[in-house]
Specification:
Elements (H helix, E strand, L loop, with lengths): L10 H8 L1 H13 L8 H11 L5 E4 L6 E6 L2 E11 L26 H17 L5 E9 L7 H7 L10 E8 L7 E3 L2 E4 L1 E10 L3 E2 L9 H19 L6 E10 L5 E2 L2 E10 L2 H21 L3 E7 L5 E3 L1 H15 L4 E3 L10 H7 L2 E7 L25 H18 L3
Parallel strand pairs: 3-4, 3-5, 5-16, 6-15
Antiparallel strand pairs: 1-2, 2-4, 6-16, 7-14, 8-12, 8-13, 9-11, 10-12
Helix pairs in contact: 1-10, 2-4, 4-10, 6-7, 8-10
The chain binds zinc ion (2 copies).
One zinc ion binds next to loops.
Length: 405
């Protein structure tokens, strides 16, 4: 017999549907006024307005406009963290939405507007069930996900220390996935993401007399191809890395050999071991190829987010919660990691948890062809936001009731 009698499974979606008007209104208000980086004051105001009057303790830290709202259940118990990120991307929006961005060069193209709105509505629903809850729910409203390490700053500010979460869950929308489908996987699910800077120094001179110079351009090109050989020959195919040199800069005109060439790129891995091997290899290959041609290579690899590793027990909690609320067909285990990166990885380094993707393909479109996150044409199916709100509640409820059992 199941000793964990669910408070309200099935009711959560009805509750979320009843709040759908508010959820969409908040999402659209945030979408219209996107903010970048660690400081998103206007978004924070909107979140605080949405949470006003709820039985929540609010905690803020000095480093960001991040907010942790604590709901203490009527009885003591475990603590579960639910996270929504709040920041937008520095890019123009090219959609026909009536609520498209009013801020030039900023767009909510990663769906963080929906994450924030769904989390605010989940807070409302869970607060309404406070008398039935044993334990605490932490609602983490986080800025600075898009490369700014916002989660790490909030953790360093001590916002997740008291009460400390026993498990952590996040939702991320995915427009190029079937609407309403939830996916995640145990183990590495998203990649580490580090930036590669290589400066190849030679000796400039006349383009007609290269022997009197040390031309850095063919050396830079050789480094690009040597890095691809490095990846295929030195990295285990079952613990992969991706190295992409995305920018090459050198020279100014047709008859001058420049002093230096500059390469900029990214390296992605799904294990810390391969991350280390890749970093060492990039430096070794660049320096030695340069040296072979009498150039000098300076290599600087800037650490981005770590690998996002999901806890198998947390994945199972999420899968069971989603199955209970929407039926087993609503869950699909992701077959392989994706090479995108997430700063929820910092939270998951400390607390077992999972980030779950929610398919939000626009109605009438084939999800395979839908514009993905980070596209300036990205649009989504807002109807699915009620499912996201309910999923937050279902997962929190399941974890508070049963933990990782
Ligand atoms: Zn993003
Ligand atoms: Zn995102």
């Amino acid at each position: 017999m199941n000793k964990h009698v669910s408070i309200a499974s099935g009711d959560w979606l009805a509750g979320a549907e009843a709040l759908q008007g508010e959820t969409i209104a908040l999402r659209r208000a945030i979408h219209e006024e996107p903010e970048l980086g660690l400081h998103t004051p206007r978004t924070m105001e909107k979140v605080k307005a949405a949470l006003a009057g709820l039985p929540l303790e609010l905690k803020e830290g000095p480093s960001t406009t991040g907010l942790v709202a604590i709901l203490r259940g009527a009885k003591p118990g475990r603590t579960v963290l639910l996270r929504g990120d709040m920041d937008a991307l520095p890019m123009p929006e090219d959609t026909d939405l009536s609520f498209k961005s009013k801020i030039a060069g900023a767009m909510h193209a990663c769906g963080h507007d929906t994450h924030t709105a769904m989390l605010a509505s989940a807070a409302k629903l869970l607060c309404a069930k406070r008398d039935h809850l044993a334990g605490n729910v932490l609602f983490m409203f986080q800025p600075g996900e898009e490369g700014w390490h916002g989660a790490k700053f909030m953790m360093n500010d001590g916002l997740l220390d008291d009460p400390a979460p026993d498990a952590a869950f996040a939702l991320h929308i995915m427009p190029n996935a079937p609407a309403g489908l939830f996916t995640a996987k145990a183990g590495p699910m998203m990649a580490s993401s580090d930036t590669i800077n290589i400066r190849v120094r030679g000796k400039g001179g006349h383009a007609s007399m290269p022997h009197d110079t040390v031309d850095p351009i063919p050396v830079a090109c050789e480094i690009v191809t040597a890095l691809q050989s490095f990846v295929t020959r030195r990295i285990n195919a079952f613990d992969p890395a991706v190295i992409t040199i995305a920018k090459i800069e050198a020279g100014s005109t047709s008859n001058v050999i420049p002093e230096a060439a500059y390469l900029l790129g990214t390296v992605r891995t799904v294990s810390e071991a391969t991350r280390t091997i890749a970093h060492e290899g990039i430096e070794r290959v660049a320096k030695h190829v340069a040296e072979a041609h009498l150039c000098e290579a300076e290599v600087d690899i800037v650490h981005g987010f770590p690998v996002t590793v999901c806890d198998a027990r947390a994945v199972s909690v999420a899968q069971r919660a989603i199955g209970a609320g929407f039926g087993e067909a609503a869950w699909r285990t992701m077959p392989a990691p994706i090479m995108g990166a997430e700063d929820f990885s910092y939270v998951l380094q400390k607390t077992p948890g999972v980030m779950v993707f929610l398919g939000v393909c626009p109605e009438g479109q084939d999800w395979r062809g839908a514009c993905p996150c980070h596209s300036n044409k990205m649009v989504l199916n807002e109807d699915m936001m009620a499912r996201g709100v309910a999923a937050h509640c279902l997962i929190a409820e399941h974890f508070l009731e049963s933990g990782f059992d």
